[in-house]
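Note to self: the last two entries modelled the partners one at a time, which told us nothing about the interface. This time every component goes in together.
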Amino acid sequence: MQYFTKIFITIALLWTVTLVTFAAEDQFTVKQLIGVDTVAPSIPANLTATAISASQINLSWNASTDDVAVTGYRVFRDNVFVATTTITTYSDIGLSPSTAYSYTVSAFDASVNISGLSNIATATTLSEAITPPNNGTTGGSIPLLLQNLFVETRLTNVLLRFQTNIYTQAVVSFGLTPDYELGSITSDIFVTNHETSITGLTAGTLYYFKIEITDIYGRKLILNNQQFWTKFLSDKIVPSNVTNLKAVGDDKVITLTWNNPKIDFDQVRIVKSDKFYPKDLFDGEVIYEGGAEKFVDKDVVYGKMYYYTLFAKDKFGNYSSGAVAKDKLRKTGEIKDEKSLFEDIVELSANLVNPIIRALTIADLDFFQDGKKLEVKDNTVNIAGDRELQISLNYKKIPEILKTIAITMTDPQDEGKSFSFLLRVNKDKTAYEATIAPLGRNGNFKFGVAILDHKNQGLKKLAGVIVSIVPLLQSQNPSIVWKNIFGVLFIILILIILFFRKKECCCLKN
Amino acid sequence: MSKIKVYVGAIVVTALLVPSFVARITLAQMNSTSYKVQSDSVNFAGNLSNSTNYRIEDTVGEIATGLSGSTNYNIAAGYQQMHNVYISIATVSDVVMSPSIGGVTGGTSNGSTVVTVTTDSPSGYVLFIKASSSPALIFGANSFADYTPAGANPDFTFSISSSDSEFAFSPEGTHIVQEYKDDGASNCNTGSTDTVNACWDALSTTDKTISRSTSSNQSSGTATTLKFRAQSGALHLQPAGEYTATTTVTAIPL
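The predicted structure of the combined assembly is written out below.
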């Protein structure tokens, strides 16, 4: 029994049931950067180096990418940092001739994360002695070309862009005259795409410039006598009216001719009416817009008088007050009866005008040149013949009734020639104004002011004289001035000689 | 003679009783409706028994014992060891979300890692995930809010208010649980599709079940990809810094 007990106890103690289970666990982190860029741009690829001259090697590579943005590239020459650039090209200059150079490039971003270095690109500068291809023999040389000139003008600077068909250096010279006296800008890099900017200019000014290009063989090409206008300050000043406007009708058409202003001019708009002079840009049919100085109106019929107003426009969209002319179709041999502007419309009387208008005199008009008011004395005003002239009538001096104010100026050398223009209310509604282009010559220009009172069918007329004096030394370029001075002196000398010869003759007679 | 009878009798009784005891134990296990018998190790007497003709190994099958190990696998050597349930997780890589998000301008960033579970359990395994903090993605006192799905189920499409910043995860793989499966259109916890970058949910400091299998997958294991997304709305200001979510995955054999 004892043995069975031992056995059973042993069996019981030895029974084991093994059942083992495991769990597996791992921990990791998830990280997120906010406002912090630690990712470098990609390595610039495909770096190439090309020798352009004995002292220049041009580099080019593919743009890198970045999780935010690539700020720029660092250029290394023979493992030494030489430059930073924001574009994917670089011109390395000032090198030694016939010398091999190795380059690499890296990219960086705004957080100064820098990429790895690009592939190595190597080039050897050209030797000093460079001869033109085929020594310039027939059929061998590549002609030197300058093309695609682009001029972008601003208020006080200008951007010039142009291309050459082969690598060249360029010199841009500029000035207020064709002597390019203001200076020059030189590019010492051989490139094909040229761009330069000239700064420190004056707004609203005409400049002359030339471009001289030189290739690596020393060949030159000059583009001369180019011009540009710097932009005018945003102005509200109306431009001058056209001058010498004439309307001449024949048996088929009415031909308009005129002279456009030389400055502050963009184009002219012709407005036509068969009722009266168009008083503004929309008071009639617009029959022409452009820069020409002649227009043939074919849309006319017999028996009608046609009225034309020409408005000159500047680059800022300001329009002149309007130059006016009228005519009708005429049979061959029929002579135009040059009456005043309004007298063929209706029988007008000065007594019918508004009394305020009737009381006006020449002294109520204001004459300005260069912002300076000129004195009017005895219905006469002296002006500088080389300056624009503004004629103004204060808005408050005339009643707000329907009216037309026109001025006609007569050529002092031919009283049969005249041109007329309107006075129009300005944008500020402070005055009725007109601007006349420089008369350009000496003379006493008779002028008449006609104020048509539409309401009362009355006409007020005024008359005066504009004495134009062209300053001798300011109106012409120096060479012409000197010619004029010598001319005057020569005439004086002749007069003196004649005087003394006459005196001698008298003495001899005596 | 009496001693021989006792020994014979003991042997007979033992022979009769052992099976019954073994059977009882075995039956006790086999009677369970929840568990499968993994292994039994019934240890008989540890000495060699002798007979005329046979040499009996009492420790049945245990030739070489102990566990051999590798990084991912524990080799069960020996009968007794072969009956241990084994499970492992391959080392999970840390996640660096990309790209960096502007603190003022906002943006969306994504990242992912893979959890590979290997088990020899014929019943399979279950995989859990949890975060160490709430909210999960933090930088000092600043954080991304844990993602809030629109309803009870994960969101098929990640969406937050422009004035918020939130952080979410989405599991993908052949063993993901129904909650993260979708209908291929717009709903999660339905269908059998595992749309990429769909069914977004928030991490929690308590375990969330993300994958489950019903069979062994030894020796290749099964991967569950964990997608993470952080988004800061255009009208939200998120202080600059390196935010971290410490995440734990746990796999348990079934």
